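Duplicate of #3305? Posting structure anyway:
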């Protein structure tokens, strides 16, 4: 079985739900306490053993490339002023993984963005981590959890969690075929954004996928689906229907959808309450409101 070493982070969406913040900045670069959400995701992947990451960028890609690049001015200044702790934090950003970029020249959908990474991935299983979903688990990164399930069962794995019934219409919802262990099941089908009456379960696909490279055959032949975009979920469904098993894994971790205003605020508050530098003052401040 091939080891999972590569990942794709799509970060070329327009981020219309958080405009005007995303007018000149990709939403993946929006700040959560002291770093952009994209850095949380790259760190999760590195913790999970991923060595090579391709970020699919759109317009305004410069801030992303600059962030993960070596910054001579900042690092020299920190070195000269002997701010070693901060220097380590900064130099770690440009050295933690091999990061590559590919451009999606038009935001034609998540499936289209993933297809741009085809030649980078080649014939290996790979992870997809959505640039606007931060998942917190200090014990075991969620990508690592998916890799372990892939290593156990040798099949593609979709990261899922149960969502409240009234929210099923916001997500891709899986139909469960059979339970393989307490957190993993085989699936028959899934439905993109169903009404709650039609939803086959409450298990929603949430921002992490570990897929066989066979997915590219289906993405190449995909046509625009819901919203006029090439959807990743449509191609996963095609792959499933071709006889390739796909598992849903109920991951352990707290997810923040920073692609909308309230998710971004919640992430800032909760990560602020976990951060040693900010937690006490923030707690006191929140009590005064
Ligand atoms: P979303 O649908 O949440 O992103 O895509 P969006 O299109 O930016 O959102 P709104 O509705 O306009 O606010 C999920 C992920 O896929 C990426 C996004 O950057 C996000 O990380 N994506 C989406 C692409 O890279 N390319 C696309 O064409 C669409």
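Output from current build:
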């Amino acid at each position: 079985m091939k080891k999972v070493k590569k990942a794709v982070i799509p970060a070329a969406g327009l981020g219309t739900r958080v405009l005007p913040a995303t007018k000149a900045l990709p939403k993946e670069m929006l700040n959560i306490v002291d770093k952009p959400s994209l850095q949380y995701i790259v760190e999760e992947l590195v913790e999970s053993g991923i060595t090579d990451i391709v970020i699919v960028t759109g317009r305004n890609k410069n801030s992303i490339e600059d962030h993960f690049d070596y910054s001579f001015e900042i690092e020299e200044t920190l070195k000269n002023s002997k701010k070693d702790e901060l220097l380590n934090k900064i130099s770690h950003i440009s050295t933690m993984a091999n990061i590559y970029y590919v451009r999606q020249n038009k935001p034609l959908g998540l499936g289209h963005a993933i297809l741009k990474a085809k030649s980078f991935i080649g014939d290996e299983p790979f992870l997809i981590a959505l640039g606007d979903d931060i998942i917190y688990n200090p014990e075991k990164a969620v990508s690592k959890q998916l890799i372990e399930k892939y290593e156990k069962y040798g099949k593609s794995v979709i990261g899922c969690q149960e969502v409240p019934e009234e929210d099923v219409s916001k997500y891709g919802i899986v139909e469960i075929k059979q339970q393989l262990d307490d957190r993993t099941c085989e699936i028959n089908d899934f439905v993109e954004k169903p009404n709650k009456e039609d939803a086959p379960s409450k298990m929603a696909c949430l921002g992490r996928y570990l897929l066989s490279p066979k997915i590219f055959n289906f993405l190449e032949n995909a046509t625009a689906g819901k919203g006029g975009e090439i959807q990743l979920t449509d191609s996963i469904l095609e792959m499933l229907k071709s006889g390739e098993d796909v598992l849903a894994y109920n991951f352990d971790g707290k997810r923040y959808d920073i692609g909308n205003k309230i998710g971004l605020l919640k992430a800032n508050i909760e990560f602020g309450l976990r951060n040693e530098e900010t937690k006490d003052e923030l707690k006191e401040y929140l009590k005064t409101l």
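Confirmed duplicate; merging threads. Residues 6-282 form a domain with the Spore Coat Polysaccharide Biosynthesis Protein SpsA; Chain A fold (CATH 3.90.550.10). The CA atoms of residues 1 and 154 lie 7 Å apart.
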